[in-house]
Structure prediction request, 191 residues.
Amino acid sequence: MDVRLARFAPEITGDPKRSMFRIYRDIRFSKDKSPYKTHAACWFYHRDADRRVGSEAEGGGAGFYVHVQPGASFVGAGIWMPPRPMLDRLRDAIAEKWKAFDRMVRDAAFKRRFGGLSDEAVLKRMPRGFPETHPAAAWLKYQSFTAGRALGDGRVTSARLPALLETDFARLLPLVRWLNGALGLRTAQRR
Prediction:
């Protein structure tokens, strides 16, 4: 997949050692003590960013994600639950360039394929520092900026999976590049 990414998104990389998520679970506080996850996941990230994701990813960025699980596989992209300093930078960029961001995430083809941005983590009220009447109020309430779509088991097990992922990643690339640009991570022309 890394070779395919190099063709259209040379700044996004993946390697077997750092891109695959661990298969064992943290069972310390869980009633379910089964030691292994029932899914596999892979993260393709910006080469200049920390590969970690979520609230621990101080130096992270946006990238592509693949989740393989019987009956629950999906492909996605963006930045999931960034730490506060990164979230503040993203919100500032959205507030400043809200028309470009709005046009990108409301694009008809994008919404048809991915359903728009995931609204799993959205504030009810405006974050501090932004007026309620801001034109980008809807986007400034987001705490994650991700989009994706489900993949059926037949697609995940087919020989066409790499080509399908390449197509979806290419369609999600504008979102990833916009988010990375807001975080100061540059687009590359070659590896």
